Amino acid sequence: MTAYILAILSAAFYGAADFVGGLTARRISTIAAVVVTQTSGLIGLVAAIAFFPPASPTTRDLFWGGAAGIMGSVGVALLYAALAIGTMAVVAPITAVCAVAIPVLAVLIVGEPLAVMTGAGIALAMVAIVLISQQPSSGAVSSPRARGLAPGVPQALCSGVAIGFFFLALARTHRDAGMWPLVVSRATSVVLFGGMAKERPYPGSTTVTTVNGGIVGLTRTLVEELKPIRVNSIHPGVVGDSPYWSEKPAAIAKYTSETPIQRLCRMDEIVNAVVFLLENTAVNGVDLIVDGGWHCR
Q: Model's pTM, two decimal places?
């Protein structure tokens, strides 16, 4: 009974986090929302350790915690990207069902028995995903061929798969490991966020330029201080489809004309760059500029 109560409480907290994260992702950039939530989660986990019995994590536990961290970071980034552009009532259930379906499929693959009611529930949920993910065309009458996936659905599907593998990785840890695999899952790889004011300062940018430059030095220092945890930083340029810049057409036209690729970076390209820094286990101490070559002009 305790396990069921904890599962319900976990689902409630996850749902609340999705709701708040979705609202936040619509007001600030997806990347900023991911950074704030992941950092807050790490701080909360470290603080919570003091209230739990002493744990004895093994190297295997920490490894699976790290694997969970990679999958979880990708899943959260994709989820917030989906919530930023899609309908929350569509995106969140799709992600949740896919996240649950992955462990169930894993159980079937290893040959464990699956209750009839559980299988029926998963099958109905999959049918529901197909139904709610459809979006009719803008015309008054739409044919099946004119229908397509609603905004955010592809990201939600991929997010659910990534979060499902996050659960599988954590399931490989032992009970004696306590909260430490979760801590490692949040701190396996750190991505700091800077900006381009360090490359192209402007009048009145002293504070911002100094902070951006400090990110470079902080990245180098943390590589040594936190090893073997990898630490990288990313410095995005002007992101044309972000909520902040999308409402400034004059500025977008100016920066587009100054960018060698003749367009501004998109939010999904920044997300992909962050995912690369998180997933590639050989990349460490890198300051990655993603601005379409704007800093070269």
A: 0.58
